[in-house]
Design brief:
homotetramer
């Protein structure tokens, strides 16, 4: 079955859905699910995700034919072929719980992606990664030498996006510009609270009764990129630092996995510093 | 601003969205938000909610013009004018927490409905209801005399739907057929567990670690109508019966309020014994 | 049944529980529930709550007899007679949802407190308050004239603690010192994020996927007092400002009610800038 | 540091805490954390968990010295040495997500237990288990031949308790009696709803808006043993069977891990068909 996903955004105006659905119909497509949403009517911005079957169509043809439609509305858009999997490069430092979760979901067929490599500045994850027959690159980067060029050399060529599954080095603006594709990070705190280092320590100090974890796109400001998914859980005075870390790991795994499921299923539209997650 | 909501359901087939959006465009409408969803591709059932502005249109015209569209697809459908509020009759027995919550939300303008009356088999709620300048009818119905004809006399004429805000008498099939419109009930248990009387007692006996409340449409089987909303909360061995009841009241208020918000905003489609809540 | 609650805190040391339970036994008391908790063994701070029946005992006797026990350990402590209700003064500004919730819980007997008055800088709440036969004082305070002396005149004399049920004026340090008893505030944001004004606007701007509300003790720093209870709920791009406000109101009501239940049941110990909520 | 945990239950009566804490003091112990709880005063049942340091004490001495204390109150009790880890045998069938989660938590040092073996009627888990250098036994049991004697031969000798981490064969009453120690099962449904096979299919059919998973002790009635932990998550009409299964796996992992953390930390008291989880 040829299934395609259209992500589409533009200034709000009349006739968008009619024009797009007519386009799909012209290609003998059948809409499986569609969401359209117009931001605050005054702001006037329109976002749409349409998933449709079109047995006769190919992504190449659709891409060409859609150009005039998008032009009419001045839209940003992308058509994805559901059969094409994205290439997801994974970076990880000392903490391996998110990595283990992602690999298990991938190994069991739930997370549909290609994983060209796992790269780490800790060698200890090699055994786990090898078990899944995936390439593992040990690159002892640290604060003084982030070795960004070496990472870029692989990432630019081999990946469609990167996942920072508790990778603890911050990339430079230069790296982000050169890579230029999406990077998804998991932060072990409930953003916008507790940015930067040791969020659980800060949570403990503040005496919060709920902790959280946040999956977000990376931009040039530390822990300030568009939020994709957040998970939270209650804590009490009985939870010491170890308990927060343990509970937090569950939240991190869940928030990151949810973000990846949404991303790989093309459910996320970035708009300004926010996300629409259909 | 003339805003309309279309609810639409039919066997899945090509061209539905195109035809419907063309219809809206023809009436110079602008789609604010739309959700389309095709049930399991094999089952092949299509549901849709579209909210659109159409300054020149009236409900009367839309209703007439939409007939051929619906006919083409063999669809069940309804167009609502967002400016028209539904008439919501409220029935309540001894427990008044859901009533108080609904009335407060209504009084503060959040819950947009007309309330033709509150009817109760307990006189004690009169004071609260009168405070909101709403008609209160005391009708001492009980298991031996449900006084359904008297309730029907008012309900059929004065309401678009009924809310059982902890009304503890079960209506007969005869009542349901004669009333024939929607009835929304709040059950103080996590259905399908704990149907019928004393769900908190049963929850305590089973030693569950999570309790719940369920808002659902009423049908002829007790506590088995389509579920609209469910709320849950953790409990522990420290929670005695009173604690469960207290926590449960919060869940009941929230599940019922959520169900009413969805219903009044025309976000619910009933399909078989299930609901789609957009 | 004479039921008492002991709250007790001191530097950790051996024999505390033995000494305290011996004290209770000496008064022919029976422990109903007890929680002891030693903070991080290194930090070495001990907190305890004991609820016990003692049919022959009076608070006066217990208070005298406990002095040497407390002295031995250098403890802060308080014994409460469960039959004595605290006097809770309520302050509220424009938003009345927390007030309505508190009054309903009070009227239904769930919230066991005396309410000497509701004081507001908005006259509109009078009707609701009068319905419960409670004194209502309208005091048109604003940023330029907080009228703290007038509030103090009543509060010091008539209350054991104050609840700011969405009271939007910040009290001066002078007020806090003169009042010197506990003040519980509900903040409509997930502290420590979104302190100060318009937390929902800020949450919307940040694009968070979870919002929250926080009940906390008031101290001299705005929205930085010890946190008592936090409630959270998921939001999505579909939720506009009104939706956040509506969902937030539920969280505020629940967080504040939970904090009040804990406070009135003497379940809260303040320690530094944190709370232990048993 | 010699740390011990006392679990204690008996008919409620005066002086228990005094006697027990005196016992601890006599062994120069220091209470780290303690919870006492008297069930509904009328029912009159008392449960207690005390964690204490006692540098000079040994479990052997404490066991002997505590006998008269327990005798005085007619109590069931157990003293655990926190340094002694329990031996946890794991059984698993086709679905490996709970197994993978447990092994990861174990490998990272969070789950403090000895794992004498993983036994499965599916050979495919061997690779994962071997990665952790743990014994893996493949035993192709099925409904027609449960091979209980072979399982018993290992389990009785090598384990302190068993975990059914999605083991899909039901044990006979005879097995349970012969094994006679605790068995913890994870059920992929929100008990008491959806007992037995295919709970996600049933949940889908009922159109519930919240799904759950339940960790419980096994007894002779299928899925009716005392509940230890339950986890829940919202679902919508958009979630098909695969989505429920995927979301459910997270709930199962979390409920089972929480139950194991509680069990290994000696936080669970069984009383009748319920648990107290401190």
């Amino acid at each position: 079955m040829n299934t395609f996903i259209l992500l589409f955004q533009c200034r709000d105006q009349k006739g968008i859905v009619a024009r797009v659905s007519e386009f799909i119909l012209k290609h003998q497509g059948n809409i499986i699910t569609a969401d359209q949403y117009s931001t605050d009517p005054d702001a006037g911005y329109f976002v749409m995700r349409v998933e449709f079957n079109a047995e006769q169509a190919s992504k190449a043809t659709l891409d060409i034919d859609f150009v005039p439609v998008a032009k009419q509305f001045g839209a940003d858009w992308h058509i994805y072929d559901k059969a094409e999997t994205l290439r997801m490069g994974i970076l990880v430092s000392d903490q391996g719980h998110c990595l283990a979760d992602i690999l298990y979901l991938w190994g069991s067929g739930e997370l549909k992606a290609d994983i060209p490599f796992v790269l780490s500045n800790c060698s200890k994850h090699e055994k786990l990664v090898k078990q899944y027959n995936l390439p593992f690159y040990y690159l002892p980067a640290d604060k003084d030498n982030r070795r960004e060029e070496e990472i870029l050399a692989r990432a630019v060529k081999e990946t469609d996006f990167l996942v920072l599954a508790r990778y603890m080095l911050v990339f430079s603006g230069d790296f982000l510009r050169k890579y230029s594709k999406d990077i998804i990070n998991i932060h072990h705190g409930f953003l916008p609270s507790f940015k930067g280092a040791d969020p659980y320590g800060k949570a403990l100090e503040e005496g919060v009764k709920v902790i959280g974890a946040t999956a977000h796109f990376v931009n040039e400001k530390l822990d300030e990129g568009p939020i994709i998914a957040q998970e939270v859980e209650s804590v009490s005075h009985k939870d010491n630092r170890d308990d927060l870390v343990r509970k937090g790991r569950n939240l991190e795994k869940k928030a990151l996995a949810n973000a990846l499921f949404s991303y790989l299923d093309h459910r996320i539209i970035r708009h300004g510093n926010k996300t629409i997650v259909f």
